[in-house]
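User: Okay, second chain of the day. Same drill as before: sequence in, structure tokens out.
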Amino acid sequence: MKTYSATALTYLQGREGVASKSLLWVRARNRTTGVEEAIGVWTGDEDRSFTIGGATRTYAGEGAMLPMEPIVQRAGVDVRLLRVILNPLDATVAYLTRTLDIGLVPVEIHRALFFPATGTLIEEPHRVWKGFVDAAPITTPEVGGVAFVELTLASAARSLQRGLTLTKSDAVQTLRGADRFRRFQDVSGSVKVWWGTARAEAPRPAPTPSPAPVKGGGQ
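Assistant: Same drill. Structure tokens below.
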């Protein structure tokens, strides 16, 4: 169950209306340098900085991110998917999707609430989604069509489906007292072995004897 502060609860229960914007924050790897970078876009009309968790984050606006579909909150460990539409012609979105590697990287969505009359932020944006980027295809339309980037986000429950393959790798085993038991596991079974001068082969089955010819006179 989502818990709201007293300020937000009073605002949502008021009769003056609600003005909200969605903020998308992605931490991805640069394809060239390998360094992790953080990129933010939101559904606002201009670029703006917000303080979230004691840190200042800058989000690109001006149509970089289209209004989102409603986020349904429910309990459980099922992996939920959410669709977010971005504008590929925006410079920040183009950098995010073409320069950075955003496959399965962490992503957060916050919601900012404003007073409709003044446009003043009522409090720090609150998080409504945490998960990973599951897919990010870029749609190139025909002449006269509309280009867009459709991000498919998977909820944080996706991390429960990851296996622990590294626990049995040679690199990890080496850290445990220089254990090299799995040094040759990648080629195990594919390397031919000879003992002495004879090649090690499985014994061949004994040939089956042919039936003896039938003796006797014919008609």
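The mean pLDDT is 84.

User: Thanks, on to the next one.
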